[in-house]
Amino acid sequence: MSDIKVFEASPEAKGKAKQLRLFAILAWLLAMAGQIFAIVKLISDETLVWLIIAIVVILILAITGSVLWKKANKLDPASEKDSTRFFIQNQLGAIMGVLAFLPLVIFILKDKNISGKTKGIAGSIAAVAMVVAGITGIDFNPPSIEKYTEEINQQTEAAKNLNIDTDNVYWSKAGNKYHAYKDCHYIKGKNLSNGSIKESWEQKGISELCKVCQKKAKKSSISSDVKDLIETD
Ligand SMILES: [Zn+2]
User: Fold this and answer.
1) Separation of CA 67 and ligand 1 centre (Å)
2) Measured between alpha carbons, how far is residue 52 from residues 8, 10, 65, 99 in Å?
3) CA of 180 relative to ligand 1 center, distance in Å
4) Which of 16, 33, 70, 203, CA to CA, is 20 to 30 A from 52?
5) CA 76–ligand 1 middle distance (angstroms)
6) Angle, alpha carbons 70-24-35 (nearest 5°)
7) What's the whole-number average pLDDT of the chain?
8) 5: pLDDT confidence band, cut at 50, 70 and 90?
9) Which residues contact 56 (CB under 8 A, 6 or more apart)?
10) CA 48 to CA 119: how far, in whole Å?
């Protein structure tokens, strides 16, 4: 087919992704700093409560980083062609989640000055936090340029079959849908962008046809089919 459409993130999407990645890295750096502080200052029987508080704070920072990182990947996905980079980019949240706790767990378990009870409590809480941070960091369904490209072409085909003008759909900034009709009540009064289905993906990272517009298009394409039948009869 001649008009195969290959996804390429728009400059705005790339800019936003870059910003999200910076914030993600900042959150992870703070998590690491928190971990170093916990290792140096908080592994003792007297500061067990503070150690637990520190673990919770580190966990929140690690998860925040992962959420932002995944959001950025949705806007500006990696290509599957470079499999190492693809893996690292998509699973960096899991890697950072583990790194935010693994040294701390080791230091707690190896410490000779704390009681067995402290070791048990702090060690298991830190280990659980590590598992939680690792799992929430995993992207089980990582976005990719190839997946997006396939989606765009499938959706464009499907919309064409409904007689939707695939080069002239509408979308608002929020949400992850595009609309075939400008007067759809979901986008009424909103600041709209307008362009092809491909462009809606490139600006939003992920996009699909609004269900209301889909129904409306289905109805009108059926009625025009009926008209065609009557006319050809
Ligand atoms: Zn709609």
Assistant:
1) 28
2) 44, 43, 20, 17
3) 6
4) 70
5) 25
6) 120
7) 94
8) confident
9) 129
10) 9
